[in-house]
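Hey,
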Amino acid sequence: MASSRSVIIEMRHWTEQPLPHGDNMAKENSGKQQKAGAQKRRHVTDGGGGGGQRKKRNDEGPAEHGDGGRKRLDGPSVGYFRRVGERLDEGFPDDEEKEMFVENVLAEVKGKAGLVATDRTGSITLQRLLPHCSPDQVGEVMAEVGGASGSEFQAVCCDRCGGHVVESALRQMSRCADSSQDEEEDGSPGVLEAQVLSLGQVVRENIAEFISHVHGSHVVRTLLHVLTGCLGPPRSEARPGVKDRNIASQMTDFDIPTSFWYEMGKLAEILMENINFSITDGVASAVFQTMLTVCHRKRPKLCKKLLKRTMEYLMSRSAAPGVSPLLVFLKDQASSRLLETVIQLSHISLLRDVYKNHLKGNVVSLALHPIANFPIQRLTAAAAKYKLFPRLFDELIQGVEAILAAGHMGVIVQLAESCAESGEKQDEMMKCLLHAFHCAEPGSRQTELKQPEVPLTSICYHGSRLVQALAKFKERSLLLSSLRTLTPADLFTLASHAAGSHVLQALITTASDKGRGKILKRLEGQYSPMACSRLGSRVLEAVWSSASVSQRQSIAQELVQSESQLRSDQFARHVWAKFALSHFLHRRAHWQEIQTGESKKRKLFNDILS
């Protein structure tokens, strides 16, 4: 204990001085700093969304007054929290030292948590500190940020810096799942649970302001996740414009207190009552989509009711005589995104009703629309699991050439992927594409055997996606024949391209041993360059995993001829180790025995799966 106390004393000395009192933080800044503050306000107004925070130049001083005259930390305070962040970077040798450090910093924050949370440096430091705090400590920070009865929550949540702190605090609720730290002995809610419920009440009372605010809306979305008991990865501040993919697959579930179940029901009801905001406003629409997504994952019965009520509301709106209001909403930027989510999460009866009573006969025209084509892609994907798909396919296939001419390749790709998933309409899809690309007749155009050899110079992303979908069809001999007409140099270009590598990998790994052997024959002489390529090496490893023993032996025989190059290359050295090429050189019989054993295991596993 004595050594830990000495460490804390050293840390207090290292921080040079305690956090200044609130009186000192409120001093007027210089004219130059006020000018910097004005420039910052312009940046916020122009920049708008995403929750990203602008990096301050080194020559800018910390502004004591920021947006709307809000007080900010002064210079010494900013320096203190910057050093706290540096100390967090260094880590702690044991939990005792970490706990004492956290208590020390929280003691300095006490009484001015709202001010610290809304300062850029203070916000970043608090976000990083909260995961090291106990749930009760997090609850106490939230209690101070929210003020009496949560009266300050809205101002902090709608601040570009403060909103991130509240989100970070909410996320710590997941750490209470496997413990009773956040529940008092008498069964009453713990500090953090009580503060989450308090925030929920403030959000419900000011729902319109929260969901339409670019920063406050993110807090509501995190709150929805916490109330249902699932969390995705935290928002990235490094590249706020980057769209998150596959968020649903990255979510983690945790247990929630009973009070959250009821609070979620209340919040969902309030959001439904204010659905008009979500239809017209893109920011509010994102909140509504989050509600539907988390309910679909954790509360499917509630989600089903919400989806039904949402569609009933949209269909009840007025439109031109004889025109479904849904056709209007599908072409609107904000409402179309909401409809994409609704379609993705809907059950078959709702999908069937939407198609039969609102979209039938209009699918092609919607697929040609610059906005409405995206909901049509979601509908095509959702229908693949049901008998609705053949009817939707028969209508969409009539406009394939027009859709291609409009440049909406996403619709075509999704149609092919749904054919692969459902196992239906695959022959019709392939014939339609051959006609659309004008290579159905004569037959030689399908493989380009009589075409002059033109080097492959560019690869289209959507073209890659389309071929990958077609590679999942039952009949893919046409694709493999076309692939075998490519020169070895073209195959290497394909293997080392970000989009093309997926095509080559899909075609080789799904081919029969005989078909794979013909492609690998064309690749001879390219294995070493592929091994030295970042993307090509991944294709080579995938090929190796699906290759027969004799095919592996041919690949290894070529690779060992470039031993020095492969061993020194940053990518190829992993290939050398994974393929056990040292064994191949010096212990050939043992290598052969290992490869034969792996091949038998793989065949047995495939037989079990099939």
